[in-house]
Amino acid sequence: MSATPAPTRPPTRRPLGWVAWLVVVVLALAAGAWGWTQWQARNVREREQQLDAGQRLDALEGRIDAIRRDQRSQLQRLQQADATNRVLRDEVLGIGQRSSLIEDTVSKLADPDRHGEQALRLDEAELLLDMAQQRLLIAGDLEGARRAYVLAGNVLDGIDDPAYLSLRQTLQQERAGVDALGVEPRVRAMAELDAFAATISAAPIASHSTVPVDAPWWRRAFATLIDVQPSDRTVAVQPADRIAAASGLQLEISLARAAAERRDDAGFRMALQRAEGWMTRLWPPSPMLDKQRATLRAIAARDLSLSLPTLGSTLQQLRQLRAAG
Fold first, then answer.
1. Which of 156, 238, 265, 271 lies at 20 to 30 Å from 314 by C-alpha?
2. Which regions span the lipid bilayer (predicted)?
3. pTM check: above 0.70
4. What pLDDT, in 10s, does the model give residues 253-292?
């Protein structure tokens, strides 16, 4: 008998292929994770770079704004310096002009033919006379004008030139006219108004309930119930009416005082005329009312401006003499 061969065992498959595939998969996952990590890191770096670039841009814009502000401030300083230079240049030119004027004045004063001391005295006298005239016409200051005339007279007394002898006589006449004025008209009118306003409270109160003793019995009986008075009666009786009338009178006196202050003759007289109308509301027809009216009309007739024909004659003559000389 031939021997039968022993049966062969089938070859066993080793799991090498699956291991290889597993390794490949693991490597692929690791590569993907590494790539994702790198991509995320790159995104973070790009965002940081963008943020850093934005901050740098903001800082750059801030520096540009600061440079612009510095430029504007420098421009303003340059403009101020330019204005200051112009002012200084004008002042230097003014100083030069004043120096030339001083030199001319000194040369004129040094000229013996021009009588420098006399010219100075005439300038001072002209200034004092002009000041006196302005004090009278504008401020109504009689005392100040008198002092200015006295000083002008003292200055003219120091001039020995006989050509100015008539000027001193004219000044004496003008000073006499100013001394004769007494009180400035505007001040006198305002003082009289104040004195008149103080007498308003002395207005008598008209009684509307007085009944004669010898009146009929029916009139005496009904006197407290019926008030009979003329229809043309204008005197205020009620306290409220008298207060209103007194207030109206005081207001017109205040308006007259304001008009006198500004030398408004028309406004002064119109205010006093209206005040006379209010007086008929306070005073009944009586000698006292006539006296008050006469006082008010006398005040209204006052002249608020100075009336001096010789005012300014000395100054005019002095200027004519200097122009002729």
1. 265
2. 18-37
3. no
4. 888 888 888 878 888 889 888 888 888 877 777 788 888 8
